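Dear support,

I submitted the protein below through the web form. The confirmation email said the job was done, but the results page showed an empty box. After a refresh the structure appeared. I'm attaching both so you can tell me whether what I see now is the final result or a partial one.
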Amino acid sequence: MAAGSQQYPAGALYVVATPIGNLADLTLRAIHVLALADTVACEDTRMTQRLLQHLGLDKRLMAVHEHNENEAAQAVADALRAGQRVAYVSDAGTPGVSDPGARLVRAIRAAGPRVVPIPGASAPVTLVSAAGDVEAQGFTFAGFLPSKGGARREALAGLRRLPGAVVLFESPHRVEDLARELAAIDPFRLVTVGRELTKQFEDIDTVPAGDLVQWLAQPNRQRGEFALVWHAPASDAQASSDELPQAVQEVLATLSEHLPIKEAARLLAEATGQSRNRLYDQALAWRQARQNGDD
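What the results page shows now:
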């Protein structure tokens, strides 16, 4: 009754989010629209057929994936002009979010038919909600990074400069490489890693980037699909009010023994994203305490 309380016009494309793991996350509206649809366009007909079987539905399927999306859009547009309701689903999650769907939606909008979003599961939003990143004022969804070294390093360098959190996807065979890259950029910046989100063996944890390789080294932790939240850099206000991480304190103590305090604070701030003023004040306080002790 709740799902059917609004109109679902014919001749419209319905962009339907499907579960990222747990079938129970399929919304009532998604089930209602899939039941109403004359045709279900989908990324993988085999996976979508299994989903429809769970729901007791038998629908005409049309393959629309990354390799034929532009061409298949014409067939979808023809079906819409004939008055059909067409639902589009990707393999998991929200179409067009690191999945096929964006080109199809653009083509249908350009052709004139209505596009109706049916929201639901989305891995980036799911993980951000569990990350607890109080510093982030919004986030950037970067998805999968380029696989080639130069483009990959350039992408990470650009993302590092952003003030908010960054959501990344990574495959199991490359996640350890990503962990090492994040640690090299800033070992103290927090990362929330989500493995097998919403599934039986879901694993979510927040660690400094420098500890992520060790986290992944635990049994079975390099299996499944990964999403990661690279937390926002700590603001000056937050950094000045919180105690410095132990690892930062140890490096600061060593640097300040061999360099002027101002220089030590500058170098460590650039490396860690900590507040330069906070680092300077801490090193100065240590030096004054030592001097008072000598007196």
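Response: this is the final, complete result; the empty box was a page-load delay. The chain is about 45% helix and 15% strand.
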